[in-house]
Design brief:
The complex is a heterodimer. Among the domains of chain A are: about 1-140, Phosphoribosylformylglycinamidine synthase subunit PurS (Mth169, Chain: A, 2-Layer Sandwich), CATH 3.30.1280; about 165-225 and about 400-430 and about 450-575, Alpha-Beta Complex (Phosphoribosyl-aminoimidazole Synthetase, Chain A, domain 2). Chain A contains 31 helices and 39 strands. Chain B is of the alpha/beta class. Mean pLDDT of chain B is about 90; it is low at about 190-195. Chain B is about 25% helix and about 25% strand. Chain B contains 7 helices and 11 strands. Chains A and B meet through helix 1, helix 2, helix 3, helix 13 and helix 16 of A and helix 1, helix 3, strand 5, strand 6 and strand 8 of B.
Amino acid sequence: MVLRIEVTSIDDPEGPRVSQMARSLGILGLTGCTVSRVHNIRGQLSDAQVELLCRELLVDPVVDTHTIGVSNPLGRAVEVAVQPGVTDLEARELERAAAELGLPAIEVAMARRYDLLGEVSDTDFETLVGRGLVNSTVEHWSPNQLEPEFSAAAAADVRVAAIELSTLDDGELLDLSREMLLSLDLEEMRAVRAHFESEGRRPADAELETLAQTWSEHCVHKTFRAEIALTHHHSDGSATSSVHDGLLDALRRATEALDPWWLRSAFVDDAGIVAFDDHDDLAFKVETHNHPSALEPFGGANTGVGGVVRDVIGVSARPIACTDVLCFGPVDLPDADLPEGVIHPRRIRDGVVAGVGDYGNKLGLPTVNGAVIYSEGYVGNPLVYCGSLGLLPQGSHPTEAKLEDRIISIGGKVGRDGIHGATFSSASMDATTGDTVGSAVQIGDPITEKGCIEVVERARDAGLYNAITDCGAGGLSSSVGEMGEDLGVEVDLSTVPLKYPGLQPWEIWLSEAQERIVLAVPPDRVAEMQSLCDQWDVEMTDLGRFTGTQRLVVRHGSTDVVDIPMAFLHDGLPRRHMSAVWTDPTPADCAPPGFESAHVLRLLAHPDVASNEDIVRTYDHEVRGGTVVRPFVGPEADGPSDAAVLKPLGTSRNALAAVLSNGICPRVGKLDPWAMAMMAIDEAVRNLVAVGGNPDRVALLDNFCWGDPTKPDRLGGLVRAVQGCVDGAELYEMPFISGKDSLFNEFDGEPIPGTLLISALGLVPDMAHAIDSAGSAVEDDVWMVGTQSDHLGGSLIAEILELPTTHLPPMVFDPLSRYRAVHAAIASGLITSAHDCSEGGLCVAASEMAIASRHGISIMAPPGSDQPLAAFANEAPGRILLTSRPADRAAVAAALGEHASLVGNVTDEPMIRLSSGETIVEISVEAAVSAFRDRIVP
Amino acid sequence: MTKPPILIPHASGTNRDQEAAQAIDIAGGDPRVVHVNRLLNGDVSFGDHAAILIPGGFSYGDSLGAGGRLALELRTWFADELGVAVRAGRPILGICNGFQALVKAGLLAGPQRPVGRSVTLTHNSNGKFECRWVTLGIEPGCRSSWLAPLYELVVRCPVAHGEGRLAVADAEVLESMDDGGLVAFRYLDSGSTPRGSAGRADGVYPANPNGSVADIAGMCDATGAVVGLMPHPEDHIFDWQRPSGPPGGSGLPLFQAFVEASR
């Protein structure tokens, strides 16, 4: 018997959200929307038991009404449910809770019902369903009552298929690679064929899949290991050629050359590790989850956060914070300009933001630093960078599995979710991608991951494991395959807990079901591990053992599934030889127009500059009680800060704090990816220094998001950007400790703008001297650190005014001595507030300081630019605005020396006054606030 | 002086338990974070503790409504133990998710009604999760004896929740809450630091961050021992945790009073 209970809350926020979305889609006939939760319940319940269920679990007596059966439709209706196989946490929770209530076992299938009020035409209905209510990649729907599908699939025989390779010619090898979604090229397919010919047998399906996962761009970074020949066409018509022997090695060598004493681990593990104080280390990692977020924004971003947090768990650290940097298409993109198969940027943005917040908030991690960038280049392929910071006692991360250790998996169950995620992210997308790889998208379960955090922290402190790794792309095939590289492993898949029956061995082996961690546990500690897991409600499975045979052996009960030598799996991949081309843009310049107040207001209201408080406040940035400098600061808590300062819980023995910041400037990358890298490093560093971070303790992370690297023009920009990172690490004397590349970010053959995110992790020596952009007092002096430039290439003002200039400002000559001087002044308490100059230049930085403090500010353009617009809107790197007490003027001048000039003062009158020669631009702080906060430009 | 043992139950998905433990520790108590599984299987007993603090977080993912399943467990598994604690007048404090669970478990049910409870915590009026600092005033007429020494106290601390709007079944409920001294905390206008000039938020966002009726941020039960609130005073124990703005407003006195009452 299936019972249906509909519950409607009078204040369900989803209803008004649908109405608002309808308006934005131009559907004016909709006058309202009522949303109900539909519980389809299969089981034998008496009337009294149904009443008990409603009273105790389903219906809030103050705000809910309910109907048993089907309610009368109020107008047109839509009923939506997740497709079978997609995680439905609410249904599982309800089943468990019913058992706790003492009810007979029930099965639950949830749905959402929308009753659409008013006059909704067929076309409008179709638009609303397709564009707003249903994501067909993970959901199905009906205009009436949706037939519930309970989550049991038919059991199937365990089957392993052998695949014939030796008779295939080159074309057929490539066809096979495509059909099986292997994403392997011809040379790689030939290497696979040769291996199995040498063993005199046909490979099993799971063996091919294992190789494809392990050899995927996502897992092994083929492009970053390739030998690349670059041809660089310069703007004067000349060309130079160079050979780049491994981009990853180049970054690693830059770090090795610096090798500071506080560096604990770089590039070798799931996350980079640096020293915090005498007792603890910090682990930091940033990942991307772009393709999944394009198809299912909430789930893609949700599992993006989950994945990077697991990277931090995978180095034995307790996660303590999250970051997110997001690149979307313009949210006001006309529907007519939306390519087929693409979700509108507005919906992607809303879904991604909700997904990031949901996961971080539920893990109890503060999301403290980030950025949002909008450009047409990201319409078909948004970028979702998720970062996580962790804390671990020094020397507490064991990395060597021992012979006969058990392979222990903890966390979630396995379904078909996420199969082929690693290979899917290693190919470009088009309109059909959603249909062919829908299974690559999944919904997260943060509570299970939270359990893993608690268990791993305690297991680490009790010394229960010898090695640990997260289960991410490629599932067990990658994590177990990597962990057993030296010793060899034997795994029995029949022990893996499944969400539903019917999975074939290769599917279990490859599933990217989330929230799993794999550990090497000595046999005599397994019982302790089990009781720890029981205590924290975390499922634990013993998968097998480390054997010493140097082979990857996988069985399902008595059926052989995989038997590959580790040497071939990890070293058999042929190295790629690739060619790359970079062509400098044809030089162009133009005289900028005169400088007006409207320019400042337009800059402040530009989506990349304007306040994203509406996003940030949906993230908990206070949990763990360690947030010292917040994303928004000042008396009205609406001024943007430069970086996050965090005092980790449990480290109150000293005043040290951590700083997180980021730099990203894709506009510059279109002109020169090398300069983009240098300027992104500078942006991250100056943000970090501006809140009190010490420039001598900065670790960097790189995240490259690029197009298809097999196309030489895409690869050329990537090589240049990597070179910029290498040169930047040397110039700034800051090591890269971890990084990631996400390639094949293309839609329908169009690449995204090559986009590099630099994330920086540093230390504030004394958190009492952490500052923000709001702390100035009236009469304070205003200083500008750094030098001006007339060049507007790559700047936001050039984009807004469509100035065709290609000239970039010069890079900073000696950044470290400049930032050391600024840091010394801040650390000695001389500086009352600071704010970096980035998008929009000096005028935006000054305005944002006025917004943050609600004081006025008066600035005379420093020398270095004769043209007023350029003087106030150039984006030369290396510049920070500082304020200090008038009484400290001599001390500040002495501390900053040649690095800064006195440019103005903080005023009581709430006006922003910018003067350069004869030109004086004046804006009220109030007008700046409405441009920045409400995006209103008169 | 001995430190009274304070039980901090941890359900799967609980967070802010470590900050709560830190606040209790600094306030002079002995915090003990215990997973509900260990309370259920008898490893640890409620009776060995002088007070109970149910912390914030997303117990069981809030899949059955905020605090819903934890409320069920409080009702079904631990009803006897909690009943004993309430009758003995031992202080019980629920913060955020802990408050939601106490309300839905009926321990903070509002004025007596023949059927069901008369108050609930539901979606913020703007429909979104909201994280921001707020100013709280302890209600002078509040019947909680352990809050009594704090009637002049103003606390500044963050809220971080999606379902923190206190709603009542009807206007009568509100009246009897006032009459019965069941209102414990209200959101104040952020400018009102000295208690003398305190003004209520009057429902205005963002001082009242979620649209709670009559600016109610927290309540107590008829015995005065059980207290719950949505904001997080455990995140304002040290001066450095406070963003720029007026000085003072620490949450520590609240935890000191809680620990004192548990002695």
